[in-house]
Amino acid sequence: MGKNSRSLVAVVGVGALAVAAVPPASAAAAEKTARSLMEAEQPVIGEMEGFDGNAHFISFMAGNTGKGDLAVVNFDCLEGAPPSWDSDSGCEVLDIVGMYGYNLDVDINKKLTSGTLSGEFQVYLGEAEDGSPIWGKTYNVDVVMKGYGEVERTDDRQEGYRDLRKTRSANVESGTLHDSELGHEFDLTGAEGALLRQRTWSQY
Questions:
Q1: ∠ CA 179-184-45 to the nearest 5 degrees?
Q2: pTM over 0.70, yes/no
Q3: Which long-range contacts (CB under 8 A, 24 or more apart) does 177-180 make?
Q4: Are 42 and 4 in contact (CB under 8 A)?
Q5: Under a CB-based contact definition with an 8 Å cutoff, are residues 96 and 57 in contact?
Q6: How many Cα neighbours within 13 Å face the side chain of 176?
Q7: Where are the domains of the chain?
Q8: Torsion sign over Cα 73, 76, 80, 82
């Protein structure tokens, strides 16, 4: 994903899935993790049923742990204009609808040439007085992604920590975001993003 989508993911709060995760300083023993992730963003020009505004960004990130995050950022833009974070574009951010999935089916092949995602995301509305989450409606997501181009490899080594990643650009060959309550369906085909594998080692 590009600058916009990464900003979006930070706003919605995907700490559990953040690719650039930092190991806890209190970890006493060596720890290894390995996971695969997919992410993509789709701009939408025009109204989306059930959401405010006349331009939107739909962005998601999901991993083979079965967890994921999805957000719809709603903008008020000039008629027919694409969504934009640029304050000089004439677009104003209205709100961000964040969603979380905890039992997703995610399959990404080892070569990062294809990936699939299916499952339910629930809208997060906030916390109750006792700290428990308040959930809104449920959306179903079905996505098929295809990787393209060369694999980019990065190896970040710090004292007591190593982060090794392989990333391939990818787009959504077919995909939908479906409102299971009202029956509205939004096309995610063409969304741009990436497929990646990450391995980390830490010892403190």
A1: 110
A2: yes
A3: 177/58, 177/70, 177/139, 177/140, 177/141, 178/139, 178/140, 178/141, 178/142, 179/49, 179/50, 179/137, 179/139, 180/120, 180/137, 180/138, 180/139, 180/140
A4: no
A5: no
A6: 8
A7: 3-18+35-202
A8: negative
Q: Which two tokens stand for residue 48?
A: 């989306």
Number of residues that make up the chain:
204
Kindly give, in sequence order, each residue whose CB lies less than 8 Å from that of residue 173, ignoring residues fewer than 6 positions away.
Answer: 144, 145, 146, 189
Q: What is the DSSP string of 93-144?
A: EEEEEEEEESS-EEEE-TTSSEEEEEEEEEEEEEE-TTS-EEEEEEEEEEEE
DSSP class of residue 151 equals P
Q: What is the pLDDT of residues 153-177, one digit of tens each?
A: 999 998 889 999 999 999 999 999 9
